[in-house]
């Protein structure tokens, strides 16, 4: 998400935001929570009353602060898959939920909607769209932005996620997998444990919405991850 702070006069202040909108942030990445907190803190009519990066903290935050809006990822490092939103809503049913996530497959959007979230926004979207989404869900209306074309299919192995979401380490692991390297060889070349390689492989599957090493290999070839290696030889 492009997080530029400072009031944005292009976003009209809706009547429902005349009073202060109380927000709780739920995301496993502290630096992302800090960025969103800074963004909302620079906008009139918003106050972040709590934040959490773990499940127990999130449940306590929404239960204690009774926010108007909860900005939450679909899951936390210690939460069950796709169960975070239902658990938070059970603790704070009056809040409007906006899912702010890197997961962009249609089945994730459907899961969020089924769980009761009114808004769904990919993390790489900008501040104007985030503010628009918050203001819209405060009126009880749904908000869902358009998703990148390659991320619109489900996570059954046919859809392809956004390569821009990958970290440099994930790119290194993906390239090595595409070249047919074994996990222990990848671990040795990167100076990490085999377990760390397996963990990065699972994160690749999750981020790219792909199932299996074969699907990752096809994706890497399509995106040119192996071409730069060949060019160096």
Give the SSE map.
Layout: E1 21-26, H1 30-41, E2 46-52, H2 55-65, E3 69-72, H3 84-91, E4 96-101, H4 106-115, E5 119-122, H5 127-137, E6 143-144, H6 168-178, H7 183-190, H8 194-208, H9 213-222, H10 227-232
Parallel strand pairs: 1-2, 1-3, 3-4, 4-5, 5-6
Helix pairs in contact: 2-3, 6-8, 6-9, 7-8
Distance between the termini: 37 Å
Q: What's the shape?
A: elongated
Kindly provide the name of the CATH class of the largest domain: Alpha Beta
Total strand count, please? 6
Fold-level CATH name of the largest domain: Rossmann fold
Can you list the strand order of the major beta sheet? Answer: 2-1-3-4-5-6
CATH architecture of the largest domain: 3-Layer(aba) Sandwich
What does this molecule look like?
The protein has 233 residues and is of the alpha/beta class. It has two domains: 133 residues, 3-Layer(aba) Sandwich (Rossmann fold); 70 residues, Arc Repressor Mutant, subunit A, CATH 1.10.10.10. It contains ten helices and six strands. It has a six-stranded parallel beta sheet with strand order 2-1-3-4-5-6, with helices on both faces. Helix 5 links the parallel strand 5 and strand 6. The longest helix is centred in the C-terminal third of the chain and has 15 residues. The radius of gyration is 19 Å and the shape is elongated. The two termini are 37 Å apart. The N terminus and C terminus are likely disordered.
């Amino acid at each position: 998400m492009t997080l530029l702070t400072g009031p944005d006069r292009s976003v009209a202040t809706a009547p429902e935001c005349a009073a202060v909108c109380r927000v709780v942030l739920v995301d496993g990445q502290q630096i992302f929570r800090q960025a969103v907190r800074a963004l909302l803190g620079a906008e009139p009519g918003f106050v972040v009353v709590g934040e959490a990066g773990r499940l127990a903290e999130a449940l306590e935050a929404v239960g204690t602060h009774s926010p108007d809006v909860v900005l939450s990822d679909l899951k936390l490092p210690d939460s069950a898959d796709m169960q975070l939103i239902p658990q938070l809503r059970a603790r704070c049913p009056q809040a409007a939920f906006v899912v702010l996530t890197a997961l962009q497959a249609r089945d994730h959007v459907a899961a969020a909607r089924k769980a009761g979230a009114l808004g769904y926004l990919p993390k790489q979207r900008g501040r104007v769209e985030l503010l628009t989404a918050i203001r819209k869900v405060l009126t009880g209306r749904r908000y869902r932005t358009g998703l990148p074309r390659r991320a619109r299919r489900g996570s059954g192995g046919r859809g392809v996620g956004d390569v821009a979401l990958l970290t440099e380490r994930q790119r290194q692991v993906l390239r090595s997998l595409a070249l047919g390297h074994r996990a222990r060889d990848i671990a040795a070349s990167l100076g990490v444990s085999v377990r760390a390689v397996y963990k990065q492989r699972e994160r690749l599957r999750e981020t790219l919405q792909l199932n299996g090493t074969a699907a990752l290999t096809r994706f890497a070839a399509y995106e040119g991850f192996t071409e730069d290696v060949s060019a160096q030889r």
